[in-house]
Amino acid sequence: MKTKNLDLNRAYTFSNFFELKIEAKDLAQEFGYTLERKWLQLPQFQGELDRIQETQSRITEILPYVSLGNETARREFMISPIMHDLIHYAKIEIRIEYKLKVTEQLQGVVDYLIQSPNHVIVVEAKKEDLDFGMTQLVAELIALDQWLDDFPQTTILGAVTTGRIWQFARLDRQTKHLEQGLENYQVPEQFDSVLRILMQAVTTN
Description:
This protein is of the alpha+beta class. It is built from 6 helices and 8 strands, in the order H-H-E-H-H-E-E-E-H-E-E-E-E-H. The mean pLDDT is 93.
């Protein structure tokens, strides 16, 4: 691996890439991948989801009374409701703070690893600075690509979120090409869209 930003004599964790403030595109190139920023217009699940309004209303109700200044609060009140509904509808497995190691340069803790029989999604929770949060997400997507090896999934979806704002990226495993979405999804306002994007990703055959 030819590198300009990384010291191959040291180990890195996913969170190190956030701290180093490396651009997502530059980090992708370090590992032999390409990246472009674009409007993704991700497909959304079109089936009936019978408790979207209930969950959205519950988040809206509590927001005036909860400070989202720490990660525990954001996870408990903003991200967990989405994960709960995803399990309810899709009956999939979600691993929280999952330790993943592929190489000394691709290792660390993934906040949420969502697994269905045919798909894996990664979600990274950040307090702020989603630009470099995207860099960390890119490292996690590349690590998953190598970790999954012969797994049949051809595209890996990932998200970085503050709880209030969600941004998505996806990796084409055949071309080693990453697409960073330009869209910002607001929760609770666009709770429906976020959940339907995740649902579509885990239920597609």
